[in-house]
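User: Batch of two.

Assistant: Item 1 of 2:
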Amino acid sequence: MRMVVIGGKGQVGSEVVLAARSSGLDVVSLDHDSIEVTSQASVERALSDIGPGDVVVNTAAFHQTDRCEDEPDRALSINAVGAYRVALEAQRRGAAVMYVSSDFVFDGGKREPYVESDAPHPINVYGMTKLAGEFLVSSANARAYIIRLSAVFGPAGSSGKGGNFVESMVAEARAGDAPKVVDDIVMAPTSARDAAALMIGLTRAQAPYGIYHLANAGQCSWFEFADTIFTLCGARTRPERVPAATMAGKAPRPPYSVLASERLGALGLMAHPWQDALRGYLSAKGYLKNRA
């Protein structure tokens, strides 16, 4: 089986490439210079060598949430129409597709972890276009995995966001600053490395196609996440709690977007707690100071 990873240098894609190679798969990594999902010709050319039994992992996305409000056409062209092109080309060649989606397909009204069978209801353009992408991918390719992630952090960082939240907080901690962090938005911090391992696990287990929530287990507010980072880094300062309303951007955010899975257990797969994932990340980066 060959695995083609679109966005292979990105925060999630780079970890999928590493996990796939570690598991012995033949991996092709495609960056933006190798494929443009908004171009049919580019998609056809980049995926010309795939065939039956192969898997195309599509991590390409326009995920700057506030910018999506200003550029809805661009968001739709990448997150939905582009994803459709990739899925359809994979279908034509007998390959499966794995589309990386988001917790932002939910509105946050449930107030308990969302599972795969919950009905989505996005409240911003980014979430709407990712949900449209889910529908289009599933309609284009019967061999489709829809992967929903939440608040991702990985060593490669997010190219569109200039790093990730963990790195931002580490920098604040090292500078002795006390950043303002919202305490009334709750999510499930997710290690790109852990998510990638589960994605490879799904393919190895020949899991049924469909939707999978691969966020790390547990939940916290952004403030709690930041405070844990400061503690593990041994910082003398602490972040400051603020309500989301004081830092609101253009796009409304779901106040609660924790993801949990009702499907992984039956496959012998398990999401690790976010605290363990964070500790592992900080340790690998040389940031971990508090080892208690």
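Item 2 of 2:
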Amino acid sequence: MSVTIEQTRTVCAALKGSCRRCEMSTQNHSIGQTQEAHDDLQWLRHALTEDWLFSLFHPIVDANMGRVFGHEALIRACQPQTGEVYGAGMIIDAANQLELHHILDQQARKTALRQAAMHPGMRGRLFINFMPNTIYDPEICLRTTMEAAQENAVPLPRLVFEVVETEQIPSLKKLKRILEYYRTHGVGTAVDDMGAGYSSLQYLTALQPDFVKIDRDLVVRAELEKEARQKMDLIVSQAKSLGIAVIAEGIETPGQLHLCREAGTDFLQGYLFGLPANPPAASMDELGIFPGTV
């Protein structure tokens, strides 16, 4: 049984005091219901100890040349007996509930590096998500990643660490220190979901990552709403003034492709260029959506 995108989005996880399945405060659940929900998440312990994790790779495309610039590694888990696949949302929510997010963050990185190394034809930057709340010591975290990168012959300058769950960052100062530490060791940095409710241009200016990703919902709204388009243009302008490359996410239609190229984004990511896959897409040549550029 496969898990749909909608199932992933609505998994019942008591996160920050709310249950995502029923949209009610977890304090309204009985003790029995809470224990039952907790027991339902024990699959994650098996996933972490029995090597259920795997990565899918989603292409990031040069907005002007139409060439694959890199890939984002997306974590998944597969139950070997049933074939049931767990999406990233379910995995992260379960890890938060069971307080296994530190272990998940580390294993997800190792999995991405190991599986990327299995595809020597996959060149370019490798974007790996990390949850800043799991990092108590960036030196230790980077050391384990460096060891995995060396073991799999993946050079550090090829890596880009991408911040996820930005709305839950307890300290901007802490995150800035983490990103600066990574950059001094040759690893690129990226901030996800720019344009979402908790993101701001001040946030971008303070962190000054190498890449910023424009939130998918903003891209969709920018096609329809003048205000959203102005916000998108402002993000692109601010990023370029800081020397930050812009990646537009969630590109699913030729219209969105045209919009983002017109806005001046540097790179594009979305289902228009293919679904996340393993083995990954290595070329856009056969798509024919960049006329005159490939």
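Residues 1-37 have pLDDT under 50 and may be disordered.
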